[in-house]
Design a protein that fits this description.
Layout: H1 2-10, E1 24-30, H2 31-40, E2 46-48, E3 54-56, H3 63-77, E4 79-85, E5 91-94
Parallel strand pairs: 1-4
Antiparallel strand pairs: 2-3, 4-5
Length: about 100
């Protein structure tokens, strides 16, 4: 995880290496851990408002907003599947 976050901060896709690293099969996080990993990886989540201006999201744990956050983190961390548990609201699984 640390290597994936470091690569995200540096903007490197590590395409110069001879062998691609294996994908992580599954990463399971809760809401708090999702936010922490986004910070570690310098991922800024914004959602577009109707006027096209990106705004910080206070409720990014549902629907397409959560899906975009999960896709972004999974890409940076080279993860095949990402599960975010949401307490009484269930869980979201990205495959």
């Amino acid at each position: 995880l640390a290597k994936g976050c470091a690569m995200a901060r540096e903007g490197s896709d590590d395409s110069s290496s001879e062998e691609s690293p294996k994908k992580l099969a599954l990463l399971k996080l809760n809401e708090e851990e999702l936010c922490i990993l986004e910070q570690w990886c310098d991922l800024k989540f914004t959602s577009s408002s109707s006027d096209g201006i990106g705004t910080e999201s206070d409720d990014g744990l549902t629907g397409s907003i959560l899906k975009r956050r999960m896709e972004q983190l999974a890409k940076v961390l080279n993860t095949q599947r990402l599960c975010v548990t949401r307490g009484k609201d269930g869980a979201a699984l990205l495959c």
